[in-house]
Amino acid sequence: MDEAHWMAEALALAEEAGAAGEIPVGAVIVDRHGVIIGRGRNRRESGDPLGHAELIAIAEAAQSIGDWRLEGTTMVVTLEPCAMCAGALVNARVAKLIFGASDPKAGFCGTLGNLVQDVRLNHRLEVVSGVAAEESRRLLQEFFQGLRKRSQVTERWQSG
Predict the structure, then answer these.
(1) Edge-to-edge, what's the strand order for the sheet holding 36-41?
(2) pLDDT value for 148
(3) What is the pTM of this model?
(4) pLDDT means per 10 residues in the chain (160 residues)?
(5) DSSP secondary structure string, 22-78?
(6) How far is CA 119 from CA 97, 112, 116, 139, in A?
(7) For a tag site, which of 23, 40, 113, 116 has the least CB within 10 Å?
(8) Is 155 a catalytic residue?
């Protein structure tokens, strides 16, 4: 298995999130043998501010292997992680991060900052960015365009 296969899994989770009304972000964690041990999709709109795809995948992976240390694992996620998720990746000792689209508003793995490669921390991750970036971006753009259209229809209905 390879990056493209793992990203396809993450994209499928992102599509599920979008279909459920969540921001379409999906993530998987892969062990050193290429086996997916954790999956997550955004669930913040269900009322959990910690319901980021990355955190859900980290929790599932830790439960799967029975250890909070996810040494030798790879996180594959459709959108560049925020500061909270980047911190969780460092604390969980994830070895490598692969992400699709950069996040100019919240990305903290190279865009607004780079928590996962900060030399002051006790752990750093290898980072590969831009894997299936166009498809990841397309999912996000379509989702937000749909939200704007629904908002415009609601505004017209309320004013008319």
Answers:
(1) 36-41, 26-30, 74-79, 96-101, 126-129
(2) 81
(3) 0.91
(4) 91 96 97 98 87 98 98 99 99 99 97 97 97 98 88 58
(5) S---EEEEE-TTS-EEEEEE--GGGT-TT--HHHHHHHHHHHHHT-S--TT-EEEEE
(6) 16, 16, 9, 33
(7) 113
(8) no
Q: Which two tokens stand for residue 12?
A: 């499928």
Q: Per-residue b/e over 86-112, b at no fewer than 16 CB within 10 Å?
A: bebbbebbbbbbbbbbbbeeebbbbeb
Question: What is the chain's percent helix, strand, coil content, to nearest 5?
Answer: 45, 20, 35
The whole-number pLDDT of residue 130 equals 97
Token pair 């209905």: residue = 157
pLDDT recorded at residue 153? 54
